Amino acid sequence: MANSAKRLLVIGPSWVGDMVMAQSLFMTLKARYPGSTLGVVAPAWSQPIIERMPEVDEVLPLAVGHGEFGLGNRRELAARLRGRFDRAIVLPRSWKAALVPFMARIPERVGFLGEHRYGLLKERRKLDKQVLDQTVKRFVSLGLPLEETLHGDFTIPTPRLSIDRDNLVNLRLTHALSSRPAIGMMPGAEYGPAKQWPLEYFHALAARLIADGFEVRVLGGAKDHEAGEAIIKGLSHAHNLCGKTQLADAVDLLADCRQVVTNDSGLMHVAAAVGVRIHALYGSSSPAYTPPLTDNATIHYLGLSCSPCFKRTCPLGHTNCLNDLSVEQVHQAVKRCV
Fold it and tell me: Do residues 16 and 270 make contact, with C-beta atoms less than 8 angstroms apart?
C-alpha cells in the first residue's frame, strides 16, 4: 500500500484511557499518509477528548451504549459514511464493532481476528499477545503494514492533548481554586475496586500535601462524587470536582497541576497526555500492559505473587496489592518530585 493520501476511518474504543492511547495510532497514520483525512467513529462521550487531538479531522459519534447492539444506529451511520473512506481500522475486537465499515462498503477494512468477523474484515490479523504486549502497541500496529509489526519494535508516538488556556482561567474562577500549587487526585477506576487505592489513604495523603503547602483537586465523574467527599472531608484547600466538570475540563485542570496521584484509570491516561508528573497506583492491573504513556511518571506497584490478577474484586478477599501500598511511600515520592 503506497504512502499516499487516503481517506482513513478508525472505529475507536469505548473507554477513556483506550481513546487517549488511540491517539498514538492517529499520529502514526498522519505521519505515514501525509495529506490524509482521518475520521473517528466513537461514543458521543468521547468527542470532547478526540477534539483535543489535532490529528483527527472529523468525529463521528455513534449513539450506542456499552454492550448495546444498536443495529439501527449503526446502519444509519454506515449509510452516511458510504463512499467517503478508503480504509477502515477497527480497534475493538467485537463482531459488532466491524459492522459499520462493512455496511458502509469501505473497500479496505483491517482488524484483529475475534468474534467470527471473517466476512466483515478484508484484512484479518492474528493477535500475538507476546509481541503486542501492550494495548497501545496493538492499536498502533493496525496502522502499519503487517511485516513491520512482527517483532513489536516499531515506534509508539506519545499522546499529547491540546490545552484550552481560556477554559482553564474560567474553571479556576468558577471553582474558586487558589494560587497554591495543585496536586490532582483521581480515586476512580471504572473497572472495579481491585484497582482503587483506599479512600482513607487518599484522604491521609491529601492532609499531608495540604500541610506541605499544596492545593488538592479531586477529579472524576459524577459516580466518584461520594469518594471525593470522603477525601476532602475536614480539609481546607481541597476541592471535590467530581461530577462538577466535563471531560474536556479535566484535560485543562490536570495540565494545571504540578503532580497527580491516580489509580490505573482513564484519567491517568489523560494526565499522561498533558505532561503532568504522574504517580500511578497499580493493584489488580499491570503497569507493563497499560502504562501511562509518558516518561514523567512514577509507578507504584508492589508486584505481589498474586499480581496482576486483572479481576474487578480481589479473589483472595484482602486486596493487599493496594492496602499494603502505604501513604508514606506515595507522599515521599511526591516530595522527591517537587
Answer: yes
Neighbouring-strand partners of residue 218:
185, 240
Compute the distance between CA of residue 170 and CA of residue 150 in angstroms, rounded to an integer.
48
CA dist 267 → 169, 185, 187, 208, 219 (Å)? 21, 10, 10, 23, 8
Cβ neighbour number for residue 52 with a 10 Å cutoff: 22
Closest CA to 290 of 189, 219, 203: 189
pTM over cut 0.85: yes
Tell me the per-residue pLDDT of 41-53, one tens digit each, with 9 for 90 and over.
999 999 999 999 9
Structure confidence by residue, pLDDT tens digits, 20-78 = 999 999 999 999 999 999 999 999 999 999 999 999 999 999 977 656 677 889 999 99
Burial class (CB in 10 A: 0-12, 13-18, 19+), 231: buried
